Every structure is written in structure tokens, then in C-alpha cells.
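Q: I have 398 residues here and want to know how they pack in 3D. Can you give me a structure?
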Amino acid sequence: MATFDYAVIGGGIVGLSTAMHLGKKFPGARLLVLEKESAPAQHQTGRNSGVIHSGIYYRPGTNRAKFARAGALSMAAFCREHRLPHHICGKVIVATAERELPLLENLFQRGQQNGVPVKKISAGEVRAHEPHVRCLAGLWLETTGIAGYRRVAEKYLELFEAGGGVAKFRNEVRRVTERGGVNVIETGAGDYEAKFLISCAGLHSDRVAKKSGVQPGVQIVPFRGEYYELVPAKRHLVKGLIYPVPNPAFPFLGVHFTRMVDGSIHAGPNAVLAFAREGYEKTDFNARDFAETMAFGGFWKMARRNLAEGLKEMWRSFSKAAFVHSMQQIIPEITAEDVVSSPAGVRAQAMLPDGALSDDFLIVPGRRALHVCNAPSPAATASLEIGRHIAGEVARAV
């Protein structure tokens, strides 16, 4: 049985950043990454909107807010250093109705509290950035951009392996036990020993924690984010990033427009309950995943509190006309003929038993282990900061 000093479960952007930073923190240590898929970044990392977030949305004082703000700078610098595709194009957040103006002001104040470069702009100034937007007022965030996060994760892996780390794919973790002060990690392809374990298992993070004998205090509930994209002839309607004012009572940001690094324009996502943790299609169903969600009291408490918005999201999932109507609130000239379906993603949302959503990154300690049990957006933006933080926590723990 191969023995390592540190093992990371999960080959997404957070796990690979953590592994890379462990290699820097502990030069000469024997390092292992275990991933159940055949390649890195196959789930949340490779299926998100690609935005380098500024940190304006998150509760002041949280690691989400701090790491996003720092990550907006470090991610751009990393992409420049390694010549990875990215563009700091800035973002407008727009109010399209009078009732949204106080919310826009609240968002501006939060941005200032978080130390985010944010500027109030008029409707005319919004149109200088995005000529086809209809709004009453907006915010301009100059540090927001886009990146190819799959490529970023692959670079993390490359640097990890160049430092002597070992990555094993097609190794799904089945159980973790402690034997003689060492973690024994059993996978479908073999067993490994590690003196310290870090789990960054994304959509399955709560399950991996439980397999290690840790109760994380949250359950992952999967939400599918569905997208449309503009046909090539209509890409001129969006120059960069355009977001609505988020509904503070609903935990998602609403339908927005993103120019991706390949030049395509994505609109979305809506957010609907997925019937499988890897349920990227409407018809995907996993009996175990669905049963766990239905049996979780926290889900039903959350659903009752967000019933009206949840029904809107479900309707938008099945009605292209409803989805297009959401887009038209910001860019009125878009029509149904201008958009086509685009691949969906699934967000691993950590939910508390009272139905509240965990609103910060959640790292749960175990015996000779750390478990990352909540790393939603802006985890990709903040991945360098998260990895550096976890490596520091490991150093303190050992």
C-alpha cells in the first residue's frame, strides 16, 4: 500500500489549488491527489460561468468576501503569469425598475464595506459600457473579468506534478479509516495511506466527510443552473458582463450575461433542484440522491421560504419564452430566435438543518483531516486564496 504525507480528495479547482499549495508549504513531502473521474475539473470547475468575481455580493467579514476580493487580483495575476486565457473586462450590475434602486444602493454600500472597487453610474454611463442594456442606473466593477477555469485547474495540476506530487484518476473513495495514526483511504482502484487528509469533494463533500467519520453539520443539495447562449450573429449585443440586481431574499444571482473566453455569450443560470448530484440534464435522476434530498427536513424548510421564486425558476426551466423574458428585462431586443440551449452546471449547495444556506466557505476539521464541505461561487475566483488558506491550516494542525 502506497504511503503519503498528505492526500487530497478531489480533482476540481479547489482540490488542485490546495495540493499545489501543500507542495509549496511542505517541499519534499509525499503528496497525493485522488479523483474519481478520468480527468480534472469535470464538474463544478468545468461547468461554471467563468467569471472572476470582485467580492461585492458576500457578507462583510466572511472568508467568501475576503478571498473573493484577494482572488480577483491573484487569479488575474496567475493567468497573466502562465499565459492562460482571461480578460479583465469589468462588469455592470443594473437596476431595471424603481423598486430595485434601493437594492442597488445597498449593494454599493456592501461593496464599499468589502473594499471592492465599485462606482455608481447612470443609465447613460451603463450604455457607454453596454449599448443595448435598458436600465435606470447601475454599478461598475472594474476588477471583474473572465477566465477559463478548466485551463486554470489543469495548470494547478501541472505545477503540482512538476513539484513531485502524484495524481491518481479513476479512484473513487469508498471509505476512510484510521489505522495506527494514519488515514487508510480505500478506493475502487486501490488503497492508500496518508498521514493527513484534505477532502475537497465538491458535490460529494458531505458524503466523503461521513465516510471519514465526520458529521459536517450540513447536507449538499444540488441545484442545476441552466443556460442559453446567443447565436453568433447576436453576440454584439453583449460586450462583457451584465448582471441584474440580485433578489436579497433568494440565494442566487438571477439571469445574467457573460462573454466567455472563447467569445460566446451565455445567459443564465436559472436555478432548479437537480434530481441527481451530477444531474446536468433535466431527465437525469439518481434514486439515492433524490431520496436524500426529499428526506432532508432542511430542504423543505428552504423550499417553503422560497416557494414563489422557486416556482418562477421551475417555470423558466421548462419555458424558453419565460427565460427569454428574463433576458429582455435587461436587453429588450433579444428574441427567442437569438438564443439556443447551452450545457448546464450543478451547484453543490451546503444546507443547514433549519433550511438556511451556508453563506461562507465551510472547512470542518477531523482527526488528521480537514473537510471542505461548502465551496460555492466564488470558489473558482478565490481558489488560490482557498488553497493557500488550507495549506496554512494544515501546517497549524500538524
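Q: Anything worth noting?
A: Residues 63-81 form the longest helix (19 residues). The chain has eleven helices and 19 strands.
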